Amino acid sequence: MYVNIDQAFVTLATTDNYAKGAMVLGKSLRNHNTSKKLVALIGPHVSEPSRAVLRKVYDEVRLVDVLDSGDAAHLAMMKRPDLGVTFTKLHGWTLTEYSKCVFMDADTLVLSNIDELFEREELSAAPDPGWPDCFNSGVFVFRPSNETYGKLLTTCSENGSFDGGDQGILNSFFSDWATADISKHLPFIYNLSSIAIYTYLPAFKQYGRDAKVVHFLGKVKPWDYSYDATSKTLKGQSQDASDMHPNFLLQWWELFSSSVLSLMKEEYGDQPFHSGCTESDIHVDVAQMHISHHPPPPQMSSQERKQKWEHGQADYMGLDSFENIEKKLDSFLK
Ligand code: UDP
Ligand code: GLC
Ligand code: MN
């Protein structure tokens, strides 16, 4: 197959959990026959076995310094104190052996071949579902350049980031994205975030099937759930996995259990690791469910629930399930 050696998909993982996301993302790109190189940037805290798995999936695994905005005030506004390290993404611009790259967050999953993104120019990205005049920095096209890297770092130190993370910096730096050139607006199907499904369900029903990239944006990530590979269900959650968003989650887990878990087992050997995935006998599982049955969580006020939702902590499997939201919409439409 023809391989573009000077174009690459790039992701970032500073922890073993995000590394799991990167493994699934890399496999999803390979399964859809990308002709591009795959590069994973990792921080020093990623364990050796996880690095070894990444090396099996990616063409290049590069250790980078973790850049941290340390900007507690702005990050607190997003309720995501963990996102300061996303400044590390900026290292992507130092990959100057590539002429063009597409950055993808480690919490994205590719559903079809997206190599056509390389026809776009820097900086192309899809709108952020929370503030569509900004782009979301989970998927973007860029051109590595030490000069741009230097300017980005200067912007960081002089002005800081309005959200404390990379997305604030990148939007300030590529500030004409919203107005200058419509070809730099990627269609939303290249960065379909779960939040949008719940804010504009009819559009999701109309266009969702065209999704090319799903982005599990928000505090709760696919690897925070657990999965039973035998019954193909998400465990510890509602047993009804027919919701749309959980379907994407199930796709993530199916890929993890079918293609990534075996690589992790090989590399971790006797060392214990948390896979989040069980291959239990269904009967045993049902029995365990009775024993470990948790009491229902205390009722939340609708204000609390709204706040949680706005912070990406929707109860996708329960109160905020696709089915419940659909019922609510139907009642308005009647
Ligand atoms: N990331 C990382 N370690 C962290 C937090 C973030 O490696 O502790 C990377 C990872 O690639 C992740 C991206 O930065 O996908 C952006 O963070 P996240 O996806 O959590 O932000 P969200 O999309 O939920 O706003
Ligand atoms: C966003 C983006 C993510 C970025 C974060 C911090 O919500 O989805 O990619 O790292 O903000 O700026
Ligand atoms: Mn993300």
TrEMBL record:
<dbReference type="GO" id="GO:0005737">
    <property type="term" value="C:cytoplasm"/>
</dbReference>
<keyword id="KW-0479">Metal-binding</keyword>
<dbReference type="Pfam" id="PF01501">
    <property type="entry name" value="Glyco_transf_8"/>
</dbReference>
<comment type="pathway">
    <text>Glycan biosynthesis; glycogen biosynthesis.</text>
</comment>
<keyword id="KW-0320">Glycogen biosynthesis</keyword>
<dbReference type="GO" id="GO:0005978">
    <property type="term" value="P:glycogen biosynthetic process"/>
</dbReference>
<dbReference type="GO" id="GO:0005634">
    <property type="term" value="C:nucleus"/>
</dbReference>
<keyword id="KW-0963">Cytoplasm</keyword>
<keyword id="KW-0464">Manganese</keyword>
<dbReference type="GO" id="GO:0008466">
    <property type="term" value="F:glycogenin glucosyltransferase activity"/>
</dbReference>
<feature type="region of interest" description="Disordered">
    <location>
        <begin position="291"/>
        <end position="310"/>
    </location>
</feature>
<dbReference type="InterPro" id="IPR002495">
    <property type="entry name" value="Glyco_trans_8"/>
</dbReference>
<comment type="function">
    <text>Glycogenin participates in the glycogen biosynthetic process along with glycogen synthase and glycogen branching enzyme. It catalyzes the formation of a short alpha (1,4)-glucosyl chain covalently attached via a glucose 1-O-tyrosyl linkage to internal tyrosine residues and these chains act as primers for the elongation reaction catalyzed by glycogen synthase.</text>
</comment>
<dbReference type="InterPro" id="IPR050587">
    <property type="entry name" value="GNT1/Glycosyltrans_8"/>
</dbReference>
<protein>
    <recommendedName>
        <fullName>glycogenin glucosyltransferase</fullName>
        <ecNumber>2.4.1.186</ecNumber>
    </recommendedName>
</protein>
<keyword id="KW-0539">Nucleus</keyword>
<keyword id="KW-0808">Transferase</keyword>
<comment type="similarity">
    <text>Belongs to the glycosyltransferase 8 family. Glycogenin subfamily.</text>
</comment>
<keyword id="KW-0325">Glycoprotein</keyword>
<dbReference type="InterPro" id="IPR029044">
    <property type="entry name" value="Nucleotide-diphossugar_trans"/>
</dbReference>
<keyword id="KW-0597">Phosphoprotein</keyword>
<dbReference type="GO" id="GO:0046872">
    <property type="term" value="F:metal ion binding"/>
</dbReference>
